[in-house]
Amino acid sequence: MAYDATNIFARILRGEIPCNKVYEDEHVLAFHDIAQAAPVHVLVIPKGEYVSMDDFTANASPEEITALFSAAGKIARDLGVAETGYRIISNAGEDGHQEVPHFHVHVLGGRPLGPMIKRA
Ligand code: AMP
Prior knowledge:
Strand 2 and strand 3 form a beta hairpin. This protein has a five-stranded antiparallel beta sheet. It contains four helices and five strands; from the N terminus they run H-E-E-E-H-H-H-E-E. It is globular, with a radius of gyration of 14 Å. It starts with 7 loop residues before the first helix and ends in an 11-residue tail after the last strand. It has one domain (8-109): HIT-like (HIT family, subunit A, 2-Layer Sandwich). The protein has helices at 8-13, 53-59, 62-78, 81-84, and strands at residues 21-24, 28-32, 40-46, 86-89, 105-109. Bound molecules: adenosine monophosphate.
């Protein structure tokens, strides 16, 4: 799938729309999800143009990949959920119910999150 530069996270990265920033470095931006599904719900995104986890891990540099996963772990520690437990989710494609076609991981926690997925 080709990257669509009009997606909402691309617009956040360009500064065209605001976000509630949690963390930023050379390769990564993290911000609170606009529709919080849990008391802690942060989106961690690469600054580069990648659609999904499979695109990111195939095409990003080792520095970008390290930066993204290091940031997710740091955010879990900094926001206190490393103590109580948390979940990392990355939705991809149609079956994964991905809404925004810029790779992101959700960091969710702050309450018991229940079973991993709804059974069909
Ligand atoms: P998904 O692509 O299914 O992993 O979900 C995309 C997530 O982005 C959803 O949880 C939305 O609530 C969230 N979202 C969409 N627009 C914004 C925005 N402008 N700021 C923060 N989060 C957003």
